[in-house]
Amino acid sequence: MAPPVFRYHPDPLGSGSLVASDKTCRSCGQARGYIYTGPVYSAHQLDDSLCPWCIADGSAHEKFDAIFVDDEAFEGEVPEEAAEEITERTPGFNSFQGEGWPGCCEDATAFVTPAGMRELREQPDLEGLVLDHIIHQMEISGGAATRLLNSLHRDAGPTAYLFRCLHCQNHHFHIDYV
Ligand SMILES: [Zn+2]
Ligand SMILES: [Zn+2]
């Protein structure tokens, strides 16, 4: 069975937050073929222990008082319902210093994937957009901006986290240092 669809994290298998696994979910007690590998903020130890269905229907959130994205992560105007859907019922993603989750068009953006230079170069324009972000949003210029851009790596910081607006389709970025 294909994993459930998440509005704000459309490809959790591609982003690495979900993996194929025969592990049993601590919430529903079933082995359903996929396990969530992202962060869990809870008093319980739930690393690599939840299936995506228990995240999608809110049962893991209710059962363990768990959230999957830091509720301080939102940047810009993100409506309450979107923030709730993301923190309580959407897979998060691993990062080094905590997530940043941009808003756009009066909604939260959707998380696409962590990326390094290799991934950015696979799509037209992304490299230039990330450099713009480094220069204008992070206010890093000149050689330091280029060095940061060239050091981006998917699995080792600094990493560029790609987001896309569900309305205007613009890309947004959060860059995390080690
Ligand atoms: Zn489950
Ligand atoms: Zn937008």
Question: Which features does this protein show?
Answer:
178 residues, alpha+beta, three-stranded mixed sheet, three-stranded antiparallel sheet, 18% strand, globular, binds zinc ion
Overall mean pLDDT score? 95
Distinct small-molecule ligands in the complex:
zinc ion
DSSP helix fraction: 25-40%
Q: Tell me the Rg in angstroms.
A: 16 Å
Please describe what this structure looks like.
The protein has helices at residues 12-15, 52-56, 59-64, 80-89, 117-120, 126-136, 142-151, and strands at 18-20, 34-36, 74-75, 101-104, 107-108, 110-115, 159-164, 171-176. The chain is of the alpha+beta class and 178 residues long. The chain has one domain (12-176). The strands form 3 sheets. It has a 3-stranded mixed sheet, with no helix packed on it. Strands 6-7-8 form a 3-stranded antiparallel sheet. The chain has a two-stranded antiparallel sheet with strand order 1-2. Helix 6 packs across helix 7 (142-151). The chain is globular, with a radius of gyration of 16 Å. The N and C termini lie far apart (37 Å). Bound molecules: zinc ion (2 copies). One zinc ion (ZN) binds next to helix 2.
